[in-house]
Amino acid sequence: VHNIVKNIHAAFVEFQKGMTGYLSLDDSILPIHTDGAIDESRVLIGDEIIVQVKKEAMKTKPPTLSGSIELSGKYLILTGGKRQISISKKIQDKTRRTELKKCLEDITCELPVGFICRTNSEYAKDEAIKEEAEILIRQYRDIVEFGKHKCKHSLLYEAPPAYLESMDENKKKKDAKIMTDSEEIYKTILQEFSTH
Predict the structure, then answer these.
(1) What is the CA angle 42-5-57, rounded to 5?
(2) Exposure string (b/e) for 161-181, b if CB count within 10 Å is 16 or more?
(3) Which residues, in sequence order, are bridge partners of residue 64?
(4) Strand (E) positions, the chain?
């Protein structure tokens, strides 16, 4: 944490060498300190905390950061720092909403994490949802552990590009065709398809 500006209730955090981002202190953030302590009551200049980039820099605005880590899956979003289960409002079947909540309440985790059930979870099997929850918990645990032992400015996790997620169904089709004019995207897609 490089600076705290009290009148806008924000901190400016150098998350990458030479790159500073805006961290709102109005959020109910639970910053994960690199010493392992989670202390929602303070963020001080000089603290080393784990942050997630929520929005990239735009024009003159610096990137927006969050002290609460979120990880997205196909059916769930893991929310760090909150032991709460929420269900997408688009899932209106009350029985299924109750089943989803019960399914996730059965998962035990020593970390302060919660879940948001995405709309895709409505017709998913409970086993698939539990499996994804366990994967997201492992990813979150790895981020916290790596953060304690890595040097500052380290990239702890990078979500796969959005275009790979949207192509998930095409992996099963042998005659799928993908067109791109970017060599970097082409190489990423080729690597992704060859590993699955």
Answers:
(1) 100
(2) eeebeeeeeeeeeeeeeeeee
(3) 22, 55
(4) 3-5, 10-16, 19-24, 32-33, 49-50, 52-55, 64-66, 70-72, 76-80, 85-87, 113-117
Contacts 24+ apart (CB under 8 A), 25-32: 27/66, 27/67, 27/68, 28/68, 28/81, 28/82, 29/66, 29/67, 29/68, 29/81, 30/67, 30/68, 30/80, 30/81, 30/82, 30/112, 31/67, 32/67, 32/69, 32/80, 32/144, 32/147
* Residue-wise pLDDT tens digits, 66-114: 888 899 999 999 998 888 899 999 999 999 999 999 999 888 778 889 9
| pTM score over 0.90 | no
Question: Cβ atoms within 10 A of the Cβ of 64, count?
Answer: 18
Contact predicate 120/88, CB 8 Å: no
- Give the least confident one: 54-58, 154-158, 159-163: 159-163
